[in-house]
Amino acid sequence: MIQNEELHDSIGDNHIGSSAQNPMREDAFAISDDEKIEKIKKDVENILLTLGMDLTDDSLKGTPNRVAKMFVKEIFGGLNPARKPKASTFDNNYKYGEMLVEKNIIVYSTCEHHLLPIIGRAHVAYISNGTVIGLSKMNRIVEYYSKRPQVQERLTMQIVQELQQALGTEDVACVIDAKHLCVNSRGISDIESSTVTSEFGGKFKEAQCRREFLDYIKLETKF
């Protein structure tokens, strides 16, 4: 038992993911969002009471309910496939065949190991093979997969895979540069460090194409 606890702590402290997809139970959506909020509300209330907080205080009375709604409808809302954005695509009638880059997309996610924020920017690119996607949809795809308990590597891969499927091409790339508050505010408490992850598909695996993308986003990290 102790060995298992040490292993699990080690995985969390070193921010190691266990799967390429978010681990979900088969009955994840057997109850409604309202039912989930009521259950989480009681759990948050119990946590605060265990910590010794006085929930009769006006400032704390609504906290369990606020946290429960935030979990279900906001910061973990991307777990629900019903909230998946429709990736509207269009024919590339103007025959633009060069790289399209959407950079500095804000990332707000949550580390699945400590439930603390991941905050950063995503830079996404693709080369059309006849299909284009609305610019705002790229932002919405990043937001959707961010709104889950995450590891940054998985998030980067999920963004690329979703765009590859929507666009019908392997020529998609994503780089994320983000701060993890589980590193910045606890443990080593290094407030300066950030984590950079990348996923390159198709032509972006070629050195010249990858270098062009990185030049566009002005990221000095070498890959």
TrEMBL record:
Its EC number is 3.5.4.16. Residues 1-24 are annotated as: Disordered. Signal peptide: none annotated. GO terms for molecular function: GTP cyclohydrolase I activity. It is an enzyme of class 3 (hydrolase). Zn(2+) binds at residues 111, 114, 182. NCBIfam families: folE, PRK09347.1-1, PRK09347.1-2, PRK09347.1-3. Homopolymer. HAMAP family: FolE. This is GTP cyclohydrolase 1. The lineage of its organism: Bacteria, Pseudomonadati, Bacteroidota, Flavobacteriia, Flavobacteriales. The gene is folE.
